[in-house]
Amino acid sequence: MSLLRIRWQQGHRTVALPEAVASLPSRFRGRPALDPGRCPDGCRSCADACPTDAILLGEGPARIDLGRCVFCQDCVEACPEGAIRYTADPRMAARTREDLRAAEGVRLATALDRQMRRLFGRSLKLRHVSAGDCSGCTAELTALGNVVFDLARFGVQFVASPRHADGLVLSGPIPDNMRLAVEKTWKAIPAPRLVLAVGACAVSGGIFRGHPHVAGGADALLPVDLYVPGCPPHPLTVADGLLRLLGRIAS
Question: Are 81 and 39 spatial neighbours (Cβ–Cβ below 8 Å)?
Answer without folding.
Answer: yes
